[in-house]
């Protein structure tokens, strides 16, 4: 019998990736709310010395980093599901999008949201610049396809969805990119989809 415990916070896009995939796979995990106080505790730092969420504990195995957790869940519980394609070229493309989720998305739309919503000490001008370079590229990629990789939803879509969907919460409008908005609707229509709680929209920048 599988025993999964997920440590996270409800408003984190990184944590949302994991919660979304768990739901899409029909997996249940015990939830532990890990606010800033918890993340500084010795017990949590023993799980992840960086003090970051998400952290997944699977029958005693501890996995941190949201994208690593996505790979773990698919390879362990749904290896033939298509969330990580069997085709090598498509699998490599998924990993490229996971890298974008940790790179351009994290330091673009995600950073802008952190600054506008949580007053995180990051540079908004830099975040806005990264986002304005990445979003047109994403829109162009999606101009003739429904999904980021191949003909169905993959981990690429799961990893990239949350912070792009929440871009307006960081003052970055998606109105100029209908292909992106169509892709977001495709993800939201997946059976088992769960979203992030909405936050108030700041003035767009």
From TrEMBL:
Protein name per Swiss-Prot or TrEMBL: Glutathione S-transferase
Pfam family, one: GST_N_2
Stretches assigned to the GST C-terminal domain: 87-205
Membrane-crossing residue ranges in chain numbering: none
Coiled coil regions, renumbered to chain: none
PROSITE patterns reported in the protein's UniProt record: GST_CTER (PS50405), GST_NTER (PS50404)
GO molecular function: transferase activity
Record keywords, A-Z: Transferase
Lineage: Bacteria, Pseudomonadati, Pseudomonadota, Gammaproteobacteria, Enterobacterales
């Amino acid at each position: 019998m599988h025993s999964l415990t997920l440590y996270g916070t409800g408003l984190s896009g990184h944590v949302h990736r994991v919660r979304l995939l768990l739901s899409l796979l029909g997996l249940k995990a015990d939830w532990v709310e890990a606010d800033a106080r918890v993340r500084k505790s010795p017990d949590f730092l023993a799980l992840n010395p960086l003090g970051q969420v998400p952290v997944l504990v699977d029958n005693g195995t501890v996995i941190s980093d949201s994208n690593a957790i996505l790979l773990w869940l698919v390879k362990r519980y749904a290896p033939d599901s298509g969330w990580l394609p069997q085709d090598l070229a498509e699998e490599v493309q998924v990993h490229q999008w996971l890298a974008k989720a940790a790179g351009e998305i994290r330091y673009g739309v995600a950073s802008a949201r952190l600054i506008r919503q949580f007053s995180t000490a990051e540079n908004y001008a830099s975040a806005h610049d990264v986002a304005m370079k990445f979003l047109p590229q994403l829109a162009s990629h999606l101009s003739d396809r429904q999904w980021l990789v191949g003909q169905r939803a993959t981990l690429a879509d799961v990893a990239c969805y949350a912070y792009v969907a929440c871009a307006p919460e960081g003052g970055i409008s998606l109105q100029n990119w209908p292909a992106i908005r169509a892709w977001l609707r495709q993800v939201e229509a997946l059976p088992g989809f769960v979203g992030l709680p909405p936050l108030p929209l700041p003035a767009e920048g």
